[in-house]
Design a protein that fits this description.
Structural class: mainly alpha
Radius of gyration: 23 Å
Helix content: over 70%
Number of helices: 18
Number of strands: 2
Largest sheet: 2 strands, antiparallel
Low-confidence stretches: 1-9, 11-22
Mean pLDDT: 86
Length: 440
């Protein structure tokens, strides 16, 4: 599929020749992530300790512990090379599917009552959300699918074939992507977690756009989806009876109403959004200062953490946070652009698409630009599962430059690589790998 006709990032990366040697950790990404960690700790300390006279530092300490665990995971992932990532992608995917099925049976009743979603395991005060882990496992699997597709397209001399043949080829590939996308999405829908479902959808869209699929397929689908969105929005505003017949629920309409009219019903559905808008606005340019609050906002420490940043540090502080996030995403894109592997390009593109959606949705809902959903702000919102998942992504991205020109003998000497490769040669694992490869 790599061809001049498709001037995509993916095809560029496949054709580029190596012009330099980089064997170091990407310092820009590390500094940006450390900066976001510090922002998170300060914001959560302000929200959970300074906000109340009887506040506890426990949440801040737990957040710090999760950052330490996440950093260790990122370091281990950085040591893993492309061959090992590629080999273990299907195994990770099916482990994630198993956990998503398991959580439907053994979900935390307390968390379900609190959030409305059956998405968490809980043991005492410790909780874990498998769908966060599945985000990473899913995008690695999709990167393998695209890599196989690119290689097969080259073998089939895709660029020399008639357009009708290319379209059929691409449609079959989209069907294959959907085959691996629908199981986690259906399981997450059954968990009643709309926000995470939307994240998976955005990862899928991001992968399709960089995979080099013919624009004659992408453009009509994009137009159809845009038309469906506008029709649904029109029906929400003017004729909801049709949507009730389609299975929409009152709580879904309540979220949309609070988005469209945030100050009409401030005692119920719109309360959280209206309070967030007041808090961010009251911070003005430089904010009120650390721990200075005048507006109560529910769930400040997690989903609405941007309200704390806006009120304490104002427009200036919020801009610094967004700048750090922008630098992180930009550097990821730069690494993908310089990568020589469709596997890594697709994986990084999926990570960027996922994090961009998280940022836009979280900041947008805090400012009333988008409907409220339970989507955290990457690296900043409280939550161990999300932090570890984000640090997994960082480790994956760092592994590209770190292993770029290291020899196979050097890579194979690392203990984590040795363990993973030995496990892959176990009899049961080898059979599983072969069956999965045939399915792919």
């Amino acid at each position: 599929m790599v061809q001049q006709r498709r001037g995509t990032l993916l095809s560029h990366s496949e054709n580029k020749r190596k012009t330099h040697t980089v064997n170091t950790v990407d310092k820009t990404i590390v500094v940006a992530v450390i900066g976001l960690m510090l922002v998170s700790l300060v914001a959560i300390f302000s929200t959970t300790y300074l906000y109340n006279n009887n506040g506890s530092i426990r949440s801040t300490l737990f957040q710090g512990v999760w950052f330490v665990i996440g950093s260790m995971v990122a370091y281990l992932f950085m040591l893993v090379d492309k061959r090992t990532w590629y080999q273990w992608a299907p195994v990770g995917y099916f482990i994630g599917i198993f956990l998503l099925i398991l959580v439907l049976l053994f979900y935390s009743r307390d968390m379900a009552t609190l959030t409305g979603a059956r998405s968490w395991f809980a043991v005492g005060s410790f909780s874990f959300q498998p769908s966060e882990l599945m985000k990473f496992l899913y995008l690695v699997m999709m990167a393998r699918l695209v890599s196989d597709y690119m290689r097969t397209s080259q073998d089939e001399h895709y660029s020399e074939c008639p357009v009708s043949w290319q379209l059929r080829w691409d449609i079959r590939f989209i069907g294959r992507l959907l085959m691996w996308t629908l199981p986690p999405m259906v399981l997450i829908i059954l968990q009643r977690d709309l926000g995470t479902t939307l994240v998976f959808l955005m990862i899928f869209v991001g992968i399709v756009f960089v995979s080099g699929i013919n624009w004659r397929i992408i453009l009509p689908v994009a137009l159809i989806l845009s038309a469906i969105f506008l029709i649904l929005l029109f029906l929400v505003i003017y004729d909801r009876e049709v949507l009730y017949h389609l299975g929409f629920k009152d709580y879904q309409f309540a979220r949309i109403d609070s988005w469209l009219r945030p100050f009409e019903n401030t005692r119920q559905e719109s309360y959280q959004l209206s309070q967030s808008l007041k808090a961010i606005g009251s911070g003005q340019f430089i904010g009120k200062g650390l721990g200075k609050f005048e507006v109560y906002v529910p769930v400040r420490e997690s989903d609405m953490i941007f309200a704390t940043i806006g009120e304490n540090f104002g427009f200036l502080g919020a801009s610094v946070v967004l700048l750090l996030l922008f630098i992180l995403l930009f550097q990821m894109i730069a690494i993908a652009y310089e990568s020589y592997s469709s596997f890594f390009v697709t994986g990084v593109s999926a990570i960027v698409a996922m994090m961009t959606f998280h940022i836009v949705e979280n900041v947008g809902m805090s400012m009333g630009l988008l409907p409220l959903t339970g989507i955290p702000l990457p690296f900043i919102s409280q939550g161990g599962s999300a932090i570890v998942m984000n640090m997994m992504c960082i480790g994956f991205v760092l592994s590209i430059r770190y292993n770029e020109e290291r020899s196979e003998s050097e890579v194979s000497q690392r203990w984590i690589v040795r363990i993973l490769r030995r496990l892959s040669h176990l009899p049961g694992m080898e059979r599983f790998q072969k069956k999965t490869s045939r399915a792919i």
